[in-house]
Structure formats: C-alpha cells, structure tokens
Amino acid sequence: MNKLELQKMAVNVRKGAVTAVYHAKSGHPGGSLSAADIYTYLFFEELNIDPKNPDKPDRDRFVLSKGHTAPGYYSALANRGFFPVEDLVTLRKVGSYLQGHPDKKHIPGVDMSSGSLGQGISAAVGMALSAKLSNDSYRVYTLLGDGEIQEGQVWEAAMFAGHRKLDNFVAIVDNNGLQIDGSVEDVCSPYPIDEKFKAFGFHVISVDGHDFDALKAAFDEAKATKGKPTAIIAKTVKGKGVSFMENQVGWHGTAPNDEQYAQAMEELEKAGESLCQK
Which residues pair with 235 in a beta bridge? Predict the structure, then answer.
C-alpha cells in the first residue's frame, strides 16, 4: 500500500474500533485510536501474514501486550480479511468470539491471548527466542502501552531480549501519555523511555506514531538492525481522529452514547472523504 492508501485504511480501522465499542456499550476507544496507524502499518504493510492461512508456520508473530485495546486490533484484523468486518458489532457480547481481550483459541490471526498487563511482551520474547533456536525466519512484534511499561515484568522481558540479542524482536510503545488514572508522568513516570530501553540493550527509534513515512523508516531500520532487539517509541495522541476524544483521559475506557457515536462517525467519514479527494 502507498501512504494515501494506508491513511484511508487507518480511517476504516478507527471507524471499526469506535463502532465496536459503541455496540458493546463498553471497551477502550482511546488507546485503540492512538494505535490505529500502528495497527494499520503492521497488518497492511509490515507483517508477513496471510488471512487465508492464519497459522502458516513462517508468519510473523504479533502480540498485543496492551490487550484492552482489542477493538483497534480486531478492526485491523477484520479489515485485513481475517474475519468479517460486520462481526465487530458483536464485541463483548455473550457468545461472541470477539471478547474484551484477544483470545488466540477463537480469533483468526491472534497469536497470543493477552490483557494481563506486562505479560504480552514476555510471551513475544519467548516466541522470538524460539525462532532463533529453530533457525526460523519469522519476526516477532509486540505493542505495549506507556502505562503498561510501569509493570516490572516488562523490564525482565526487555533484559532477557537484550541479553539474548534477539534482533528478530520489535517492541513498540504506544506513547500517548495517558492511562486510566491520568497522565503517565503523574501516575508513575516511565520517562525517559528511550534511555531505559537502551540500557537494556535495545536499538531505540523514536517516531511520530501517526506518520506513515516515519513508521516505514522505523520498521525498515528495525529490520536492518543486527545483534540487538529494537524498541520503537511511537508518540501518539490518545483518541486520535475523534476530536472530543483526543487527549482526554476519560476516553480510556468509555463507550460513546448515540450522539457521540454519530459525531465520531461523521468526523471519520469526513476524514475519509478528504483523503479520497487527494
């Protein structure tokens, strides 16, 4: 996909995430929207995956460590063709395979059940080590929240990845600055995030997480880096793409009402239309 196509797809990913949370009457829109461009780049450009063969042995692995932002993840998977986009409205419904956190047993394309914060990166590092031990070519990617990296287990995993020189492993931090209780800086500051990952033996790249050119350059650089795992620190805006959700901590885990949903979808429709005119 070219940059414009990725931008259009990101709008669709955002629409799917907002629609899913609205119909569920619960869920996490803020972090789903901040990560939407990252999800879009990964699933439509970066990852070696095949929706027709979700379990192919040489596929790249992705672990959503901040599992509560499943609405954005599901929307990316659905738009990529792993399951019908229409099923997004069943999010969190009784009997639906699309529950509040990713479930690898029931959702095509999901490589790890996740949601207990801090644990996803550990599983991802294990996958990367497995590839090294088996001489397999697949790469492993994990997406963390900046609030999530307050968990000690994250740094145990980082220490291990650096020690084992897992250059097939990429940790992406969605640095939107907000978590459920407020700003990450006020709750328990993780800064400087870049220096911490460097101290654990990572090659570190800082990018604008909404700029597809910057994301491409970062992931290309990660692939070219040998002898070290890579951490991509992506500066993002919580709730990106919906004006009244942007940089508002209250939208971490709140569903829009009817009026808010209508406004959000109108804004996203207009964003998509303006891209179509380019």
Answer: 175, 208
